[in-house]
Amino acid sequence: MNPSTSALLTDLYELTMAQAYLEQGMTGPAVFEFFVRKLPANRNFLVAAGLEQVLSYLADLHVTQEELVWLERSGRFGSGFLRDMETLRFTGDVDAMSEGTVFFPHEPILRVTAPLPQAQLVESRVMNLLNFQTMVASKAARSVLVAGGKPLIDFGLRRAHGAEAGLLAARASYLSGFAGTATVLAGKVFGIPLYGTMAHSFVQAHEDECLAFEHFAKAHPENVVLLIDTYDTEAAAQKVVWLAPKLTARGMSVKGVRLDSGDLADHARRVRRILDEGGLSQTEILASGNLDEYRLRDLVNNDAPIDSFAVGTAMTTSSDAPSLDCAYKLQEYAGRPTRKRSEGKATWPGRKQAYRYYTADARLSHDIVTTDRDRRPGEPLLRSVMKEGRRLELAPDLSETRQYAAAQLRQLPESLRALEIGPSYDVQISQDLQSLAQEVDRSL
């Protein structure tokens, strides 16, 4: 059994509610919407990601015989519920923003319309998939915006919170504009370009640093990228210069060197000078080591001679904003709009659509969130992606989604592109939606 695809990868109350719904015959159409209540303290925007995994999960939703046996032995569920679970399939509809779409609080990112037990049961996994990839894609986009066009590589698997997190972080960061990843399985599963060099252990395993470089070059003649900060960074750069002619005689060239510690800007300048004076002006410098968007910005703004960057822990864990204030809430049941009115967590009722408007120079101007019956002239952000449990189109190639995300980032106004918090983006709640909320409140 693959735990990541199991219908039991959910919270217990999803199952207990589903049983109660089924016992009472409450199987009418329910509308749930996923949205973010507010931006993290240091974000100007978010990037939607995770839709493909949600659709795959819904399309394959079922309970295995092994899981049914376990549910029965748990003693929590009746025989009628277990019979319903035996034939469980997702038969609903999904409307969603395209992956890579820039979005803001109160805007529905995804809408599920399905029989109430189904729509309820999938809540936890849908939130889990959308929350994580959106969080990482949004963090990665910030690095892309400050990198000045220099390639960024995901090095975060070893610090990720589990195997699936590492794999999906590679996907989310590539979607947002990273050049590739060191995570090999992400190359196989998603077709993401792979990058890698060597670890300090490889150098330490050799009695001589120069011999380590030579052995690595011999093993990987097409990808001679050498880690030079195990002992003395500048001394290692001199060894690379000494070794280069020997490699050239064998038809190999030093593609790059990697810096992973210390004052990266200062080391990069010293190493660049050593390489240039040694005739290795074409050898690039890759920098890694606890990088985030703030350090990237400083290195780029200070003209550090670094050609590419590897970003790991901070991006994969979204360390400064490790969670989103997101929700998946019931907005309509059996044709009746519903609304949560809890203090600080009130929702807007009914099926909604978000419309986007642009300035004359094609930058984002403002969005309007309204009911789906209130047609607007702007660009509708939600589109139909699944009907009656079937996808309406093939999954787009990840490279296409990446291009779309890049176009979205280009449309951000300057005030939202900065790392510092700027003026809040204008998301308007339509009069039609406000009136619907008032109607629901009166009915309560």
Mean pLDDT value: 96
Strand content: 15-25%
Total helices: the number is 17
Fraction of residues in H or I helices: 40-55%
CATH fold label of the largest domain: nicotinate phosphoribosyltransferase
Low-confidence runs of at least 5 consecutive residues: none
- Structure class: alpha/beta
Largest sheet: 7 strands, antiparallel
Main CATH class of the largest domain = Alpha Beta
User: Distance N terminus to C terminus?
Assistant: 45 Å
**What coarse outline follows from CA principal-axis ratios?**
globular
Let me know the CATH homologous superfamily of the largest domain.
Answer: nicotinate phosphoribosyltransferase
Describe the structure.
The chain has 444 residues and is α/β, with parallel strands linked by helices. The chain folds into two domains: 3-136 and 324-443, nicotinate phosphoribosyltransferase, CATH 3.20.140; 137-316, TIM Barrel (Alpha-Beta Barrel), CATH 3.20.20. 40% of the residues lie in helices and 18% in strands. It has helices at 12-23, 51-59, 65-74, 79-86, 116-121, 123-146, 163-175, 184-190, 200-204, 209-219, 233-249, 264-277, 293-301, 313-316, 398-410, 414-417, 431-443, and strands at residues 29-38, 46-47, 93-96, 102-103, 110-115, 152-154, 180-181, 225-227, 256-259, 284-287, 308-311, 325-333, 336-337, 352-358, 364-371, 379-380, 383-387, 390-391, 427-429. The chain has a seven-stranded antiparallel β-sheet. A hairpin with a 2-residue loop joins β12 (325-333) and β13 (336-337). α6 packs parallel to α13 (293-301). The longest helix has 24 residues, at 123-146.
